[in-house]
Amino acid sequence: MEIEKEFDPAFTMMTANLSPGEQIKVEPGAMVAQSNGMEMKTGMGSGGGFGGFMKSMVRSLVGGESFFVNTYTAGPTGGWISLAPSAPGDINTFDLAPGESFFMQGGAYMASEVNVEVSTKFQGAKSLFSREGAFFLRAEAIDVPGKVFYTSYGAMKEIEVTPDKPIKIDNGHVVAFTEGLSYNISKVKGLGSFMFGGEGFTLDFQGSGKVWIQTRNISSLATQLMPFLPSSSQ
User: Fold this and answer.
1) How far apart are CA 227 and CA 159, in angstroms?
2) Which 3 state secondary structure label does DSSP give 60?
3) What pLDDT was estimated at residue 57?
4) Are 20 and 73 in contact (CB under 8 A)?
5) What pLDDT does residue 5 have?
6) What pLDDT sits at residue 232?
7) Is residue 129 within 8 Å of residue 40, measured between CB atoms?
8) Contact 145/95 with Cβ under 8 angstroms?
9) How far is C-alpha 99 from the geometric centre of its chain's CA atoms?
10) 10-14 long-range contacts, Cβ below 8 Å, gap at least 24?
11) Would residue 213 be called left, alpha or beta, if left means φ above 0 and alpha means ψ between -120 and 50 degrees?
């Protein structure tokens, strides 16, 4: 699968060029355009059977993703499909080794190769009181290597974390991180900062790995827009 990106980092569109019979799983609504001869089938996002049904349900209810995903298959001469996120932002690719996990914020998953399974990971009890989601998405390659494609709101920046260089990130700006990292959820010190300073919970990463942050926070945007929304009539 060859990948091309255009218009990054603010309005990125990704095109996947597929060999004959090659497949890609795509979140509903992410497809922009495709070549003739591409076949699409819709199914549960986490496989079949009762276990797949429950995983898809949890992924949909708490992970910010769709219950169903669309699988596109290239025809006998190959094909291409262009994808883009719903919010203005960037698209990154992460190559998973067999059995390796990769973690993303809810709503960041856009597409993957068919052998990549996506489930959910609870952030912890403290996250229930934050403005952001309480669950991360976990992508894992089954049996063979696989690619996962994830998106941000705004541009993305990659940061290396080492045991002697931990990092503290606002929960709403975390996009993704590798499995070599662990984190704690902490509240910004001071009641005034928490209530009036526009800051809340942070994720404090430690260990060895990489974390990706986004330059914009969609929850902050929603807060800014709220005063301009029409109120319901009494």
Assistant:
1) 35
2) helix
3) 46
4) no
5) 97
6) 65
7) no
8) yes
9) 19
10) 10/88, 10/89, 10/90, 10/154, 10/155, 11/84, 11/88, 11/89, 12/84, 12/85, 12/89, 12/90, 12/91, 12/151, 13/82, 13/83, 13/84, 13/91, 14/82, 14/83, 14/84, 14/91, 14/110, 14/149
11) beta
Tens-digit pLDDT profile for residues 173-194: 999 999 999 988 887 665 444 4
3-state secondary structure of 56: helix
Looking at the domain assignment, is residue 41 inside a domain? Answer: yes
For residue 204, how far is the Cα from the chain centroid?
19
- For residue 111, the domain's CATH number is 3.60.160.10
Query: What sign results for the dihedral spanned by CA atoms 206, 212, 213, 219?
Result: negative
> What is the total count of domains within the chain?
1
Enclosing domain of residue 49: 2-154
Helix, strand, coil percentages for the chain (3-state, nearest 5): 15, 50, 35
Structure tokens at 191: 């009641």
Q: Is the dihedral of CA 124, 108, 168, 191 positive or negative?
A: negative
Please give the single-letter amino acid code of residue 159.
Answer: I
